[in-house]
């Protein structure tokens, strides 16, 4: 049985990676919505698009886990990284929309520097995930390494992730 | 693997359509319950019937996705559109019940014009989804096109969807 | 495909019955917890036992749906009704515990007559579900008919279900 | 059918044990978070690690249930008990972090004796679950018996589980 349990490692790997990355997105979502006090229809839709990204994550992660090291791993990595490009873009849209001064969706006592730091941290997302995607053609290891490094970067609180002087 | 992933398109299609349409129902539900401040037993039951419609949606959607373009697609479309006829009727019943002046279920500061606009937007639902259902016998494309157009119509906020003069 | 869809009726039947009966339990739970204002460890455990009953329901319901009209339907009905005997007992324990005057778990402004009516309605549960269970040996139809009648009885608000004079 | 139902006992056993043990963890989580009033990023992450433990539980439990009494039951028990060692460690970290005076995460009116009692009860967890794990090599029955006894111990409220004098 020991070997049977070990033989299922792609399932464990994709479960743990999906759990961790969705957890990091949840923490980020929590960070944004401690600042957001009101919502409107567009914010609801952007939030649903974020949820779409989150619920999709386990599928490309499982595809990567089962095809890693095989001849067709590139397709898996493209699908996987494309999902994160999508999520990073939606996070930026949602935050840009919510934090826009003219819409008054943020809490009144919100700290302007804190809002700016989140915007600056998130701006790295789409660009760097596209680099991840491009790296799929160069090296699977490099692509995954950058993808995992980005997850760590977005797990960091904004005041640690981006330099304090703004 | 690329072809394997592409070959699963009916799953993706039905997942995305179900997600989108349930999302639109969630936004509508959210709109109604920002006006509703109290509940009673009948409202709980109508709300459960709405939930029944929502949890059922992925099944007929998957049936349509797997049978589209085949000889028996009409049965699939009838099942699919019948689900939306049911949901549209329940939405109307729930809103009519909740917004009835004598039951005092709405918030005290509710805007009468806003209540009226929702009633007018929802009144289109049952009739037009029955047209969708009837179109299944004429043309599958027309039936789906009207169904998707209706989803967009119900995604619109009431003050955009129905003319402002009331 | 029409015949294939029809051929799955036991799935639809058990889904609809489970959904309806869990819905009725949800409404009852909602009724109890509009009166309950505080909780303690025993109430948490009784609430978990109720949740256990609720999550189990779809299994015996599916067993009944797939074995109805077959020679071994009695075993299915015994399992099914035993689940409801368990749920009815837990509902009674939970309410007796929560409504006990010395524990001060109810809201302060709770209506004594309303508490009494719930106690009287729930007292019918365990006895009548045991009758349902016993009827499994006499007639499957009678057993299911009484079970469904009881679901309707518990869907009724207490002031309708039990006579108003107390 | 009676024999078929009985033949699925490992499924029922692992379902019931998972449900019960997750229920006990839920009660403990509830106990902690009635004292915790504020949260920060580290607490969010520790809470996610706890959630990871909770969602994993049904897997090793099912592995134990299907392999009990077979030659390879030790591997199953090691996996099972290792999960609880992990959960016990995370519960301790989370509570130590949250209850640390310098972080001000607890409610202001929190009872110091009550905080101390939880710390003392939880301190038993990691050590005793490691004993459980070690017992897997000696006797499967002893390992499971201690594991179940520990579940009961953690179901007890802290003021009952640890002596009142502190």
Largest interface: A-D, 10 and 13 residues
How many helical stretches of chain A?
A: 8
Share in helix of chain A: over 70%
* SSE arrangement of chain A, N to C: HHHHHHHH
Strand content of chain A: under 5%
The biggest beta sheet of chain A is recorded as: none
Distance between the termini of chain A: 56 Å
Please characterize this protein's 3D structure.
4 copies of one chain form a homotetramer. Chain A is elongated and about 55 Å long. In chain A, helix 5 packs parallel to helix 7 (140-155) and helix 6 (112-138) packs antiparallel against helix 7 (140-155). Chain A has helices at residues 2-7, 9-35, 41-56, 58-67, 73-99, 112-138, 140-155, 158-161. The first copy, chain A, is built from 8 helices and no strands. The first copy, chain A, has 166 residues and is mainly α. Chains in contact: A-B, A-D, B-C, C-D.
């Amino acid at each position: 049985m020991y070997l049977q349990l070990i033989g299922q490692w792609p399932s464990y790997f994709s479960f743990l990676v999906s759990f961790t990355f969705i957890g990091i997105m949840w923490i980020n979502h929590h960070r944004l919505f401690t600042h957001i006090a009101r919502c409107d229809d567009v914010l609801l839709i952007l939030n649903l698009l974020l949820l779409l990204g989150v619920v999709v994550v386990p599928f490309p992660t499982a595809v990567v886990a089962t095809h890693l090291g095989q001849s067709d791993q590139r397709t898996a990595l493209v699908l996987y990284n494309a999902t994160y490009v999508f999520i990073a873009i939606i996070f930026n849209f949602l935050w840009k929309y919510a934090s826009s001064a003219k819409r008054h969706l943020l809490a009144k006592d919100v700290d302007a520097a804190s809002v700016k730091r989140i915007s600056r941290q998130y701006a790295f997302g789409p660009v760097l995930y596209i680099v991840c995607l491009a790296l799929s053609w160069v090296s699977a290891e490099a692509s995954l390494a950058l993808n995992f490094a980005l997850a760590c970067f977005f797990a960091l609180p904004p005041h640690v992730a981006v330099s304090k002087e703004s």
